[in-house]
Amino acid sequence: MKRAALILAVLASPLWAGTDDLTATGDLGLVIERATGSLLVIDRSDRAAIGRVEGLGDLSHASLTYSPDERFAYVFGRDGGLSKVDMLTQTVVARTVQAGNSIGGAISDDGKLVAVSNYDPGGVKVFDAETLALVADIPAAGKTIGLVDVPGRRFAWTVWDTGEVFLGDFSGAEPLIAMIGNAGVNPFDAVLTDDAHTYLVGLFGEKGVTAFDLWDDAPKPEKFLTDYGREGEDMPVYKMPHLQGWAFTEGQYALPAVGRHQLLWVDRATQEQVATTEMHGQPVFVIAQPASPFVWVNFATPLNDVVQVVDSRSHEVVATLTPGKAILHMEFAPRGAEVWISSRDDNKILIYDTRTREKVAEIAADSPSGIFFTARAHRTGL
Amino acid sequence: MKRAALILAVLASPLWAGTDDLTATGDLGLVIERATGSLLVIDRSDRAAIGRVEGLGDLSHASLTYSPDERFAYVFGRDGGLSKVDMLTQTVVARTVQAGNSIGGAISDDGKLVAVSNYDPGGVKVFDAETLALVADIPAAGKTIGLVDVPGRRFAWTVWDTGEVFLGDFSGAEPLIAMIGNAGVNPFDAVLTDDAHTYLVGLFGEKGVTAFDLWDDAPKPEKFLTDYGREGEDMPVYKMPHLQGWAFTEGQYALPAVGRHQLLWVDRATQEQVATTEMHGQPVFVIAQPASPFVWVNFATPLNDVVQVVDSRSHEVVATLTPGKAILHMEFAPRGAEVWISSRDDNKILIYDTRTREKVAEIAADSPSGIFFTARAHRTGL
Fold first, then answer.
1. Is B113 inside a domain boundary?
2. Which residues of B fall within a CB distance of 8 Å from A151?
3. Does residue A232 surpass a pLDDT of 90?
């Protein structure tokens, strides 16, 4: 290394102080405040909370997705409420209680349709993204899980009770719904790889993960990891892992082992397990730090005050952090420079520099859980 | 397939007619109008031009990058001009002519620094992203090419005349500049993979491509494709391919063969050539359609009225389109539903649905070349 003895100005980092009150939406985000049914509006560049939206109902288990222009958030509440929030006016502009209990949703690739997966009654409802008018109501023989958007105005979802996996095509005048196969016993969540190639379904009622190749005209179920943890004994599952957090890096899937203090590494091409990493607790979210070899992992209660960082090349834990009490979620800046971590019982969002792994800022929040940056608008399968 | 006989509303697609004049920035973009030195402001959701910014100087070979909030564009002109454009007010808010001839630039992962690579005089200049004040001036022994952002407030670049590759770290009080190896004879462009893992340098003075593993603490040059096209004869190169368009899909690089009517497929893990696709002409941009197995290719003059689509699984051409005259660039919606194509000599932007591969709309533009959606703000290495 040689030092460049060159012109060097002191780099201040002032907040943007424009001469107007216009707001761009590319670096905004929302934090779910689970106890109060509110959303904290955050500005990523300013590392600040800039507002709060209330009246979202029961957000004790909630998620959201964004419109393509990064202006509107569609919030899926536990109470079956679907709310449309305007990030610029910080108001709820539409809301419908569309089921008794919902667990998530997705927006179509063209931004025109919002689909919600429901537990009670089971099934998928599809809404016009502009008005929240009901467009299609697709019943199911049980609880629907793992709803994802698929390119071509399509969605995929899975039924917990029956193991059935469906692909719905909403590009024509009428929806076309196809059952593409059975994943196995009690699928608990599913996820789509970022290239929309593979729909992975995690099983709770039996060992294993089932993959569907969605690039294929006739996708078929392919089961793998069917014998993980055959030696040793499973522990009670304190918190079901979230598969939306499954990391895809270095040609591998990094999967949380259900009921184990382990991360399982699977070669993406062969679907063979290539490594196991012993972890601090039962992994909940396993999230790849963008543009890096690292994945960050948080854990189920009661070991949920720790975050570990694992190198996807060596499969070794390279850092163990104790950011705060009840770490529920982590969200990376889209190019990976920072990670925002919610510490529910400290009522804080903690911001870490991913290179130094040091805390650089914190923001007060009321029992924060999920953190969602608007950059998600541009990603498939979220 | 069974048809769902369910509630189905007619899906209208009205433009958003809010009660305010607020604008979100997530679905905006800019088109370079090369003959007039202007930028056309486009709205992706509305498939419309919504304004024009003038006074950008010589844009006959220009590119741009966006701030993390998707509000500002940094435009790199051929005349060495660096301009900062506000997408919301549609004005030039800062401009500096910082060299005699520049060829591109990048913004740091934290959005604080903008770096420009120059031909005349050669070297890299780094500016404060807010004010465009000069922060560092790094001379080079020749023309700089292939400047990319690397996580951790770093940039990488290469020198055409000497083959030297540099990594600059601007995270501390003073920049640290390291020469990390020699790529070979006359590198003409370079590109970073989306995971920031591999910096690939294309060579013009000899056969081959040189890779640097930027996840390694001590990156070393590794040359591959050194014998492609040993049989057969090279043609004159009508237009140097753009490596920023190199596609990464299905564990492969899809590379334009310099001086050949061919696409070369290289296994990303082994760096072995796995296939060759015979093409309509000399490839210029080879761009992966997001969330799909397909890459789209345009061609050098005089065969530049054609676009071909290749399947990365079979390596076969699956579609040959003739969208218009002098096809200079293609930009995909970030989730892949549409591709916007510039037809310079038709003075049009053509919008194609990627699923049907049919044209769905067109927009008038004055000699359009590069098309840049704001979603680029969230991607590494652009």
1. yes
2. 291-292, 335-337, 354-355
3. no
Q: Which of A311, A337, A331 is nearest to B150 (CA)?
A: A337
Q: How many domains does chain A have?
A: 1
Contact: A136, B171; criterion CB under 8 Å:
no
Query: Looking at beta carbons, which residues of chain A come within 8 Å of B23?
Result: 22
pLDDT tens, residue by residue, B257-267: 888 899 999 99
B69 touches chain A (CB under 8 A): yes
Instruction: Indicate the burial class of A14 (C-beta count within 10 angstroms; 0-12, 13-18, 19 or more).
Output: exposed
Residue indicated by tokens 């060759």: B276
Secondary structure (3-state) at B60: coil
The verdict on B1 touching A (C-beta cutoff 8 Å) is yes
Looking up tokens 């913004």 gives: B107
Nearest to A355 by CA among B154, B235, B328, B363: B154
Q: A223 lies in which domain range?
A: 67-227
- Mean pLDDT for A135-152 is 96
Q: What are the φ and ψ backbone dihedral angles of B193, each rounded to 5 degrees?
A: -65, 155
What length is written for chain B? 382
Residue A233, domain member (yes or no) = no
Q: Identify whether A302 is part of a domain.
A: no
Q: Report the CATH number at residue A136.
A: 2.130.10.10
Instruction: Using DSSP, state whether B378 is helix, strand or coil.
Output: helix
Residue B45, chain A, CB below 8 Å: the answer is: yes
Does B248 have pLDDT greater than 80? no
Name which of B14, B24, B197 is nearest A69 (Cβ-Cβ). B24
The answer to whether residue B293 sits within a structural domain is no
Confidence of residue A360 (pLDDT cuts 50, 70, 90): very high
pLDDT above 90 covers what percent of chain A?
A: 77
Burial of B370 (0-12, 13-18, 19+ CB in 10 A): buried
Interfacial B residues in 160-179 facing A (CB < 8 Å)? 168, 171, 173-178
Q: pLDDT of B151-193, one tens digit each?
A: 999 999 999 999 999 999 999 999 999 999 999 999 999 999 9
pLDDT in tens, B227-242: 775 455 566 666 667 7
- A252 in contact with B, Cβ within 8 Å: no
Site of tokens 């060299």: B99
